[in-house]
């Protein structure tokens, strides 16, 4: 899989380019991974409810055809778009999502952070009280709150068309997190969003992008 580091690019042209790439690809088109950063934008998934966009202010809200609810993209976040032919790769959508999450978990591990999955809530989370603890989450989540002291550090939203994927995953590195407070992130009211910086990891966008790109390339291989 070829990885393209695209730097800071506007969201809408990137979205259009993903659709065009996927619509025109053939059985021989190589898989590729686009790694980029977007200016401030809210993106709304197909299942998205307008009520989850609380106060967008001057940040545009863009409807998309990915799964999931509303999320925020902005400077200091690594956004990775794997463009993969799943039929050729030999695995299905559920496995694809698992592999993306595994790549994020391994990226966090590179920085000494333990990430966690939450059943029924795609994305990756960290313990707010001790993000470096290697202990597994134990016991049932409190009623009505599946996030039990967790903060979301990576959001996932995908689209599959003719067995081919686009959209992808966003990892928060060193952001202004305030815009997340103006939405219910991924449809969950009050869900706290964190980045590597706020949990004590000092790194650059370039380093985080390189590590995530490498981990995705490895995990998404056939």
Overview of this structure, please?
This protein is of the alpha+beta class and 222 residues long. It is built from four helices and ten strands. The chain has a single domain, classed as 2-Layer Sandwich (BirA Bifunctional Protein, domain 2). Strands 1-2-6-10-9-8-7 form a seven-stranded mixed sheet. Strands 4-3-5 form a three-stranded mixed sheet, with no helix packed on it. The model has no long low-confidence stretch (mean pLDDT 94). A hairpin with a 2-residue loop joins strand 7 and strand 8 (121-127). Helix 3 packs across helix 4 (205-219).
Q: Could you name the key traits of this structure?
A:
single chain; 222 residues; alpha+beta; BirA Bifunctional Protein, domain 2; seven-stranded mixed beta sheet; three-stranded mixed beta sheet; 4 helices; globular
